[in-house]
């Protein structure tokens, strides 16, 4: 696909900016204290884990001090020191960035020490790259859309906050599902011991301590952490957040695999329909994440979470962060998932349960208060207990798809706005039968220049483009990572791909 001239100009400027003084890199030592509450506020003194891979979720360990330990999970000294320095200087952590290897703050910038802001003209986003959003009009509204020449689909609004649409018969992906069925059981993440994860997967720098950054990788193996904490600790002494997380069990019980972009012809058809459906520039669809297929059996669920991380200064998007001209590994620990849209395909009927729930959808008075029902406080995140307390829930139906916007649209710029708090969602427990879904996340960097750099690279240096960057906490591990080589991209494959970013044959690289 040819790149258009206007965007080229912008890319050139982007590269100049990258090369010159005006490009802010982010602080890698960041302890990510941004706890994404469901109301979007950020708690600063907690160490949090944040979801991803399949979305958000996470746990909060309240007020951890240096030296605090959970088993061999200890709060890393250097991070505490960094935080203290920042705190003492009266500067919020999110205000700190690294510019040309030296730490600068917004204060420096404002006081002229590193006065670069004036040199950056506002970015004019060319019209064909601008983001759009389908107008929900109102719940129940149905629009006919021609997603393939001569083929019309009913697209129905089922939520307006966030805009949520469903469509029947969007694509029959059952062939894909059948092909994947034998993989059930291959993902042996839960069969490994927790120690294995601490030593090999989580303790990235092998210092026998789990730093806060490393700690962020935990949520997907939460059940093991919970078991461990229960066995070794006085549970009563833990913070309320931790206790509530432990009560609601693992955030997620499911198996998931990623499918290379070109694995099935159906994927090309699907991409073309999504270009029509979303009205987005084809390159945005083509550089988005690969399809993730998820399988749940009875008891399987995914507690409510956000698929996209809140925009936080200083943390780049995972899908572009490796393009920053600095340490290619750092993004693994400090990036965000930036998913403008979620398209979720149901690949099978589920006999009972397994609803996709949106606890906050169209809740006009959305706040923590709104979850007090019958004089009882409801923990909306816990979909095992509160599936049907959600404002909107959908029963999985084969061939149905649901799409929603995880971010608002900044209409003035035509680019990504804040995260939409109402997009909080999850998968309820499967009670009977199985649940098969596929996630198609449309990734967009709030930093337009970085998104353009990605498109530029896809055309001009495709070997450098990785289309399935795992967010920081993706820790899926298989016992035999070489099996099915060439057909499936699992997260650990991709991590390898990044670590060997000069190796073009690496599995993490996919050309379109
Ligand atoms: O299982 C579902 O219905 C929702 C899944 C989901 O939210 C996710 O994979 O991010
Ligand atoms: Fe999700």
From TrEMBL:
Source superkingdom: Eukaryota
Region (Disordered) residue spans: 475-512
Polar residues: compositionally biased ranges: 480-489
Keywords for this protein: Dioxygenase, Iron, Membrane, Metal-binding, Oxidoreductase, Transmembrane, Vitamin C
A matching Pfam family: 2OG-FeII_Oxy_3
InterPro entries: EF_Hand_1_Ca_BS, Oxoglu/Fe-dep_dioxygenase_dom, P4HA-like, Pro_4_hyd_alph, Pro_4_hyd_alph_FE2OG_OXY
Cofactor names: L-ascorbate
Domain Fe2OG dioxygenase: 287-444
A cellular component term, taken from the record's GO annotations: endoplasmic reticulum
Molecular functions (GO terms): iron ion binding; L-ascorbic acid binding; procollagen-proline 4-dioxygenase activity
Listed name of the protein: Putative transmembrane prolyl 4-hydroxylase
Organism: Stichopus japonicus
